[in-house]
Amino acid sequence: WSPDKATVVFVLGGPGAGKGTQCQKLVADYGFKHLSAGDLLREEQDRPGSEFGEMIKSYIKEGTIVPMEVTVQLLENAMKSSMDGGNAKGLFLIDGFPRKLDQAHAFERTVVPSKFTLFFECSEAVMEKRLLHRGETSGRADDNIESIKKRFRTFVETSMPVVDEFEKQGKVVKVSAERGPDEVYDDVKRLFKQRGV
Ligand code: UP5
Ligand code: MG
Question: Residue 143 Cα, ligand 2 centroid: separation in angstroms?
Fold first, then answer.
C-alpha cells in the first residue's frame, strides 16, 4: 500500500455541523471512501478485547480528544484496507479529524498531506438543536446537553487552531452549514469543482 498515492480531504466543523451527512452525499456522487474518526473510535471502543475501549469511552463522554496515536493508527489501517481492497484511486474523506494540532502534524508527516479541508460553519445554537434532536434516538453517549457543551468547548479551544493553521496555508474551503442538507450540498459541489475535484 502506498499512502502517498492517496488523495485526502479533511472534513471539519463543530459537533453536529453536518459532517457525516454531507460526506454520505459526496460518497454517492464522487466515489470517495468516507472514514469518520469518531465512528472508527466507537467501533474500536466496542471491539471485544480492545485494550483502548474504556479509555475511548471516557474521552468521548467528556468530549475530549483521544490520544492521537490511537486515532492515527485506526485511520491508517482503514486507509490501507480500503486501498488494498480496490479503492485504487485512494480518494478519502476523513471526517472529524484532525481536531488537534498534534494529530494534524503527525498525519500529514507520517501518512500523507491533505489536499484541502472542507470546513462547515454553523452556530452553536443550531448545532445544539440538531444534536439534542438526534440524541432522542441515536444512542450516542455524547448526545446529551452536558457532553454537548464540553464538545463545543473542545472544538473552540483545541480544534479551531487546526482550521486556522490550514487556513494560513490556503487549504480551507468554507461552507455555511445552517441551511438544509441539500442547499449545503449544492455549495459543497460547486466549491469542489472550483478546487478541481
Ligand atoms: N443534520 C445534518 N445536517 C443538517 C442540516 N443541514 N440541516 C438540518 N439538520 C441537519 O448531523 C447531526 C444531526 O444533524 C443529524 O441528526 C443530522 O440528520 C442533522 P451529522 O451529519 O451527524 O453531523 P456531524 O458534524 O457528523 O456531527 P457529529 O456529532 O458526528 O460530530 P462530532 O464532531 O461531535 O462527532 P465525532 O463522531 O466526529 O467525534 C465524537 C468524539 O470522538 C469527539 O468528541 C472526541 O471525543 C472523539 N474523537 C477523538 O478523540 N479524536 C478524533 O480525531 C475524532 C473524534
Ligand atoms: Mg459525524
Answer: 11
- Alpha carbons 26 and 122: distance in angstroms, whole number: 19
Q: Which ligand is nearest to the CA of 24?
A: 1
Encode burial over 39-71: b for 16+ CB neighbours within 10 A, e otherwise. Answer: ebbbebbeeeeeebeeebbebbeebebbebebb
The whole-angstrom separation of Cα 171 and Cα 116 is 5
- CATH number assigned to the domain comprising residue 117: 3.40.50.300
ipTM above 0.95, yes or no: yes
Per the structure, the complete domain to which residue 144 belongs is given by 3-190
Annotated binding-site residue numbers for ATP:
16-21, 134, 179
Model pTM? 0.98
The atom number, within ligand 1, closest to the CA of 24 reads 21
